[in-house]
């Protein structure tokens, strides 16, 4: 009868040490969020007291109602939701098509073009913002939401690279069998590659959502009217005009971060698998 060997002391030591380090890291990263959450329920006189009161007493539930009504955060949420959804749709349409072309369609200069595409990832957005602003100003798009989501319909280098890496892991025999049945490139893309790329597509959705929802720099450059503000601009405006009301600011910030937490919570398994299979881990 085979007996499972007992784990050695060194193995147990490494496991315990690993869990201790992970726990310390989780506490370090989670502490600011817990402070924000705790502050959102405090009366204003308890915000900066020492030692910190992690459990508010009394709990001020109406902080959230007052914070979201003092400033028009409802309008900011609508604006951010519209921009985010359109950006996700644009990235999914443009990046999947471009990635499939780079992964499976042979054409002259494909590798050089893909290399140039990757080279654009090395350019900081601050370098290109001036010519982009001039273009949008000539188009009459300044102080509109168009500059915030229209570029997504023209692709993104990182998302194209991510999807291309995933598409290349799909067995080419499936494509060859489809070609023998008379399928063209678009039908192969729609009926084979997209259904098999759920993890990679969800990864793109999460990255695109986070990039659009939390974007502060581009709305700051292109938007001037308060009724067109996004959530990050709304929080910045709230901070500048009502900087002493930290409990309201933290309440609005908690509401703003909830969609990001829920999105990752429900799709974390697909996200991790997509990152692993596209070669971005490590």
Estimated radius of gyration: 24 Å
**Which structural category do the helix and sheet elements fall into?**
mainly alpha
Number of spatially distinct domains: 2
Tell how many strands the DSSP assignment holds: 0
How many helical elements?
13
Per CATH, the architecture of the largest domain is Orthogonal Bundle
CATH fold type of the largest domain: MetI-like fold
Explain what you see.
It is a single chain. The protein is mostly helical and 282 residues long. It folds into two domains: 9-64, no CATH class; 71-277, MetI-like fold (Orthogonal Bundle), CATH 1.10.3720. 69% of the residues lie in helices and 0% in strands.
Nutshell version of this structure?
This protein is mainly alpha-helical and 282 residues long. 69% of the residues lie in helices and 0% in strands.
Task: Furnish the topology, listing elements before pairings.
Layout lengths: L8 H31 L22 H9 L2 H32 L5 H10 L5 H15 L6 H4 L7 H11 L4 H9 L4 H9 L4 H16 L3 H6 L8 H11 L4 H32 L5
Helix pairs in contact: 1-13, 2-13, 3-7, 3-10, 10-13, 12-13
């Amino acid at each position: 009868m085979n007996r499972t060997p007992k784990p050695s002391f060194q193995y147990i030591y490494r496991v315990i040490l690993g869990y201790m380090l992970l726990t310390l890291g989780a506490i370090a990263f989670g502490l600011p969020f817990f402070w924000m959450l705790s502050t959102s329920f405090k009366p204003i006189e308890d915000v900066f007291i020492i030692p910190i009161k992690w459990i508010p007493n009394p709990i001020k539930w109406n902080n959230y109602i007052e914070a979201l009504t003092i400033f028009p955060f409802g309008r900011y949420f609508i604006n951010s939701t519209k921009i985010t959804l359109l950006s996700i749709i644009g990235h999914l349409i443009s990046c999947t098509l471009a990635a499939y072309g780079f992964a499976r369609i042979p054409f002259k200069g494909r590798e050089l073009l893909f290399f140039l595409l990757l080279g654009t990832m090395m350019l900081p957005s601050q370098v290109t913002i001036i010519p982009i602003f001039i273009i949008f100003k000539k188009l009459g798009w300044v102080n509109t939401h168009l500059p915030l989501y229209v570029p997504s319909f023209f692709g993104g280098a990182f998302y194209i690279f991510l999807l291309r890496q995933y598409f290349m892991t799909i067995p080419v025999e499936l494509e060859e069998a489809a070609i023998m049945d008379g399928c063209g490139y678009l039908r192969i893309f729609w009926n084979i590659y997209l259904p098999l790329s759920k993890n990679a597509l969800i990864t793109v959705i999460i990255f695109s959502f986070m990039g659009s929802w939390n974007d502060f720099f581009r709305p700051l450059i292109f938007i001037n009217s308060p009724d067109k503000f996004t959530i990050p601009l709304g929080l910045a405006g709230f901070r500048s005009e009502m900087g002493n009301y930290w409990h309201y600011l933290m309440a609005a910030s908690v509401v703003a971060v909830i969609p990001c937490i829920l999105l990752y919570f429900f799709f974390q398994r697909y996200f991790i698998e997509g990152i692993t299979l596209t070669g971005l881990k490590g």
